[in-house]
Design goal:
single chain, 275 residues, alpha/beta, Rossmann fold, 7-stranded mixed sheet, two-stranded antiparallel sheet, 12 helices
């Protein structure tokens, strides 16, 4: 049975399916998450094999990996995401590479056997919407369980210090709700995400410690938006100074694994390998 938080997450995402599909390519700021993630996917994915895109939404990464020749299974909580994914997969003519589309929660991957996948993805923040902490640990255990020995696992989440750094420019009114905001500061918990949704904001140490409880080794941690905190400022920079923006992207890729950058980015990603 779905928890209250799971039901709210479903409701939020089912109401914004097209927005989630476009989110990673809508502007220069949001493209940072996609471009940085994909750069590290290319670096650490095996040359071929079966990939699980867990919490993969409407299938942005599924489609891009299918285009590169990977066999992919798309798995997501929200039925509306998967319906759009089916249309986009057909449109992009990669139906033969997408081996299955399955609805479910990342806390329960029982539809898949142990050691099934050559790589596992959990990108864009699905772990941040799992409540409570014990279930987040369960989800991590499941991601590791279904990966083959030696397989890379990529998980990105929302960042606690990243959201706090963006607060003065992005949503200063939130600080007015002192008790609510203090809960975010102390515990990373936000029960008013996008209105009434739930989100847990991680620190990099917290995320790493949770993964280290499993049979893995840590490969890297990455700040996906890097030092680009404010959406409007970033998009203005990219539009007004295109040559400088190209140089800035190169610098971003050089520094995105620095610890300060990881913790202050809007989204952070951890890459681990199953032992």
């Amino acid at each position: 049975m779905d928890s209250k938080e799971t039901k709210l997450t479903k409701k939020v995402y089912s109401a914004s399916v097209n927005g989630e599909w476009k989110r990673l390519i809508k502007d220069s700021f949001h493209e940072l998450e996609f471009l940085t993630t994909f750069s590290f996917l290319k670096k650490y994915l095996p040359k071929n094999g079966l990939v699980l895109d867990a919490g993969g939404g409407p299938g942005r990464y599924t489609i891009e990996l299918a285009k590169l020749g990977y066999d992919v299974i798309l798995f997501d909580l929200v039925a509306e995401h998967l319906e759009l994914a089916k249309k986009q997969i057909k449109k992009e003519k990669v139906t033969n590479k997408v081996k299955n589309i399955v609805q479910g929660s990342i806390t329960n991957l029982s539809k898949f056997s142990d050691n099934s996948f050559d790589a596992v993805l959990c990108l864009g923040g699905p772990l941040s919407h799992v409540h409570p902490k014990a279930k987040r640990q369960k989800a991590i255990s499941e991601l590791v369980r279904v990966a083959k020995a030696g397989a890379p696992i990529f998980a990105s989440v929302m960042s606690k210090y990243g959201v706090m750094l963006a607060t003065p420019a992005g949503w200063p009114q939130e600080v007015g709700f002192k008790k609510h905001f203090q809960n975010l500061v102390e515990n990373g918990e936000d029960y008013k995400w996008r209105g009434n949704g739930y989100c847990h904001y991680f620190t990099s140490d917290e995320l790493e410690k949770m993964f280290l409880k499993e049979n893995i080794e840590v490969i890297s941690k990455i700040g996906l938006e890097g030092l680009n905190v404010d959406e409007k400022v970033t998009n203005k920079f990219a539009k007004k100074f295109p040559e400088a923006w190209k140089n800035w992207l190169e610098i971003h890729m050089q520094i995105c694994t620095e610890s300060f950058v990881v913790d202050t980015s809007g989204h952070m990603m951890i890459i681990v390998r199953k032992k």
